[in-house]
Amino acid sequence: MALWRAYQRALTVHPWKVQVLTAGSLMGLGDTISQQLVEKRGLRGHQAGRTLIMVSLGCGFVGPVVGGWYRVLDRLFPGTTKVDALKKMLLDQGGFAPCFLGCFLPLVGALNGLSVQDNWAKLRRLWPAVQLANFYLVPLHYRLAVVQCVAVIWNSYLSWKAHWL
Q1: How far apart are CA 14 and CA 51, in angstroms?
Q2: pLDDT digits over 59-108, tens only?
Q3: What does pTM read for this prediction?
Q4: Fewer CB within 10 Å of terminal CB in the chain, N or C?
Q5: Non-local CB neighbours of 151 within 8 Å, separated by 6+ positions
Q6: Distance between CA atoms of 58 and 25, rounded to whole angstroms?
Q7: Is the pLDDT of residue 165 over 90?
Q8: Contact at 8 Å (CB) between 81 and 30?
Q9: Other beta carbons within 10 Å of 138
């Protein structure tokens, strides 16, 4: 609990920095889970450069872009009712997601050799439900962390899929 309270204090004092670092950390965690638990590489076989790429994507692209987008959504629809959550999810999935994925997937594909089609098919099934719950149940300053926690599972899969031979 002390760690959680420290995280909340840091989030209050430096919300943007903490959210971006959280995104990068959780993307790196997803890759580490993939390498250690799924691929069973062990510490000697761990590809630190690969994990660093995922951390860099989280801190340099996903965290700033998605965190900024959540702020825009909260200004457009400041409430937390079911209707507000539905509006946010519809705008997110109908407007932002195609643009974001149009940038993110080619970037990840270029860095990891994944097909855009495979990534797109998986994301289309998962994210609308995650985002609806996120916008309805989660306060703004925790949304990026919640999505990134869900993304740990997704990132583990992506990392495994990208590097599975």
Answers
A1: 25
A2: 999 999 999 999 999 999 999 899 999 999 999 988 888 778 767 767 77
A3: 0.69
A4: C
A5: 26, 27, 30, 62
A6: 7
A7: no
A8: no
A9: 17
DSSP string, 10-66: HHHHSHHHHHHHHHHHHHHHHHHHIIIIIS--HHHH--HHHHHHHHHHIIIIIHHHH
List the structure tokens of 13.
Answer: 């004092």
Residue type at 151 in one-letter notation: A
> Strand, coil or helix: what is 87?
helix
Residue (of 73, 76, 87) closest to 143 by Cα position: 73
Q: Could you say which DSSP state residue 139 is in?
A: -
Under 8 Å CB-to-CB from 110, ≥6 apart: which residues? none
Please choose, from the candidates 146, 152, 136, the residue with its C-alpha nearest in 3D space to the C-alpha of residue 28: 152
φ, ψ at 78 (rounded to 5°) = -70, -10
